[in-house]
Design goal:
Elements (H helix, E strand, L loop, with lengths): L10 H5 L4 H12 L13 H12 L10 E6 L2 H21 L4 H17 L2 E7 L10 H28 L3 E5 L6 H7 L7 E2 L2 E5 L20
Antiparallel strand pairs: 1-2, 2-4, 2-5, 3-5
Helix pairs in contact: 3-6, 4-5
Length: about 220
Amino acid sequence: MPAMSVGNVRIQDAVIGEWPALTAFLELARTRRSIRRYTPEPVAPTLIEALLEAASWAPSAHNRQPWRFCVVQSATTKAVLSAQMAEAWRRDLSGDGADLSEIERRVAISQARLTGAPVLIVPCVTLEEMDVYPDPLRSQAEWTMAVQSVALACQNLLLAAHAAGLGACWMCAPLFAPALVRQVLALPEAWQPQAILTLGYPAEVRTRTRAPLTERVVWR
């Protein structure tokens, strides 16, 4: 694989002309960024549905598609969710001995991200249709496969959002308060919230780099 030896910065140059579709995809993947500030412009429901359609075509363990999504557009619901999650985070940070001013700074940033996004998408995992095993090892493996399946669906959604000119950001806060998120959003008991994806039209431009593939990949 000689093209890989030049590192991820040059992969696109190596495939130009030979695999144009791959070149286009690499450009999409390389230019996607986590966007945290959005314009007030609403996102059309049809566009949201198209993003969820893209998510639904991700691979999944046993093809069980253990993902579930809650779409939040109501300003009231966003405010309630943000406020209750903020209070839970305050308690955790206080228990850690964090400085009060630092706690409020971090909480304010998080609340602004949640309430300032036109759309929140809450991906959840469910084991309702996954295999059941009597031993903990295989049970844990089944859970991990389901969670990985949801993550794959979310990646499809994030890339599709970028392709549509939208910005998005993956926030993992629900992992620390799944019951609270489920209660606020009135989700079924079997739905385990995994993240919050903020979504909207970008009001900022962000750039990031990646470590060379030579530091992250081994060949055998």
